[in-house]
Each structure stands twice: as structure tokens, then as C-alpha cells.
């Protein structure tokens, strides 16, 4: 387990888990959102995004988090990954996490990537393209279905899927990753 893709609905804790896992394994953390969102929330050019992800995942070990179809699935992330960690938390847990995270970020004016900050009004917007809370709600079922299909797809047979459905399972997995690193001397 040296090339890991962490996926799940927005607000499920992908970045937090990926950052912790990368630290435990001693490999780089690749945050796909940071490569995709330019200043002013402008999306990266498709070719530039693909090139940046290709470059970041060309090393021997990494933990990438994100769900971008252009690079996850049939793109370079899953093509090079050996493990997919799916954070499949219940919708109520995800929604609580994404609301609190968004509120905290907006009120503290935390910088995310390339000078971007979540707007305070983001919590009130109904358009899922402009509200991460609404995005998490509207994409929850589709993302779960897509990942369940991927687990059974022949094109993903080279991947080990780890489906984590609770915070306790996440913590146990992370503790095991740390023990595995110490046991192998990596």
C-alpha cells in the first residue's frame, strides 16, 4: 500500500484522512482540489490539470484525495494506485461534517487553495455548483453507486478497495497503516 486514492462524498473527510495516511506512510499528500482550483475558484485547464496530476502521481508512493473523473477512475490516479480508500460514511454524518466545516472555514476566512476562501453565503445557496453543502447532498447517492460499480469493474481489478463506514473504522484503518509501516520498515 504505497499509492492510495482516498475518495468519498464532499465533506466525508477525504483530505484529513489522506493527510494523516500520507504522514503515517511517509509519502506525499496530493490534494486534487489544490491542483484543480486556481485563484478566484477558476478551474484549471483540463490538460494542465491532467499534467499536474500525472506529475504528482509519477513517484513511487503518494496518497491522493479527490473524486475528479478526469483523473480518478480511468485517469492516472487509479491507473497508478494500488489501493482505493472509500470513506462511505452515513449521509447524516457527512452533512453534519460538511456544514460545520464550511461554517468554520467561512467565519475564520480560512484560505483553502490559491487564495480561495469559502464564502459565508455558500451555506445559503441552493445551486450545488456554488454550495459545497448542497453539492454533498445532491451527489451523495450517485457517488455511492459509482464507487460500488467500480469495486466490481474488471478495469479496477488491480485495486484493493477499503470501504470505511464509520469514524471508528477510519481510526482502526489508520492505526493499522501505521503499524504496517513500522513492521515493514518503510
What does this entry look like structurally?
With 186 residues, the protein is of the alpha/beta class. The protein has a single domain (3-184), classed as Rossmann fold (3-Layer(aba) Sandwich), CATH 3.40.50.300. Helices cover 48% and strands 12% of the residues. A five-stranded parallel β-sheet has the order 2-3-1-4-5, with helices on both faces. The radius of gyration is 16 Å and the shape is globular.
Strand order within the widest beta sheet: 2-3-1-4-5
**General form:** globular
The CATH architecture can be given as 3-Layer(aba) Sandwich
Examine the coordinates and then state which fold CATH places here, giving the name of the CATH topology: Rossmann fold
Distance from N terminus to C terminus (CA atoms, Å) equals: 11 Å
> Tell me about the biggest sheet?
5 strands, parallel
The number of domains is 1
- State the assembly state of the protein chains: single chain
- The name of the CATH superfamily reads P-loop containing nucleotide triphosphate hydrolases
Separate helix tally: 7
Strand content: 5-15%
Specify the CATH class.
Answer: Alpha Beta
Low-confidence segments, ≥5 residues, pLDDT <50? Answer: 179-186
Q: Report the order of strands and helices.
A: EHEHHEHEHHEH
Mean pLDDT equals: 89
Return the structural class: alpha/beta
Radius of gyration: 16 Å
Percent helix among the residues?
A: 40-55%
Report the count of strand segments.
Answer: 5
Amino acid at each position: 500500500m504505497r499509492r492510495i486514492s482516498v475518495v468519498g462524498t464532499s465533506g466525508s473527510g477525504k483530505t484529513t484522512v489522506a493527510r494523516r495516511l500520507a504522514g503515517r506512510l511517509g509519502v506525499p499528500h496530493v490534494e486534487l482540489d489544490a491542483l484543480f482550483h486556481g485563484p478566484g475558484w477558476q478551474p484549471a485547464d483540463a490538460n494542465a490539470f491532467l499534467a499536474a496530476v500525472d506529475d504528482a502521481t509519477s513517484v513511487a508512493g503518494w496518497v491522493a484525495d479527490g473524486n475528479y473523473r478526469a483523473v480518478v477512475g480511468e485517469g492516472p490516479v487509479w491507473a497508478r494506485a494500488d489501493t482505493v480508500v472509500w470513506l462511505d460514511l452515513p449521509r447524516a454524518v457527512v452533512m453534519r461534517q460538511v456544514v460545520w466545516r464550511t461554517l468554520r472555514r467561512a467565519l475564520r476566512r480560512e484560505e483553502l487553495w490559491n487564495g480561495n476562501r469559502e464564502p459565508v453565503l455558500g451555506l445559503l445557496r441552493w445551486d450545488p455548483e456554488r454550495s459545497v453543502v448542497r453539492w454533498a447532498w445532491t451527489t451523495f447517492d450517485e457517488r455511492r453507486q459509482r464507487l460500488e460499480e467500480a469495486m466490481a469493474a474488471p478495469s479496477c481489478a488491480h485495486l484493493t478497495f477499503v470501504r470505511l463506514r464509520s469514524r471508528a473504522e477510519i481510526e482502526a484503518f489508520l492505526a493499522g497503516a501505521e503499524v504496517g509501516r513500522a513492521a515493514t520498515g518503510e
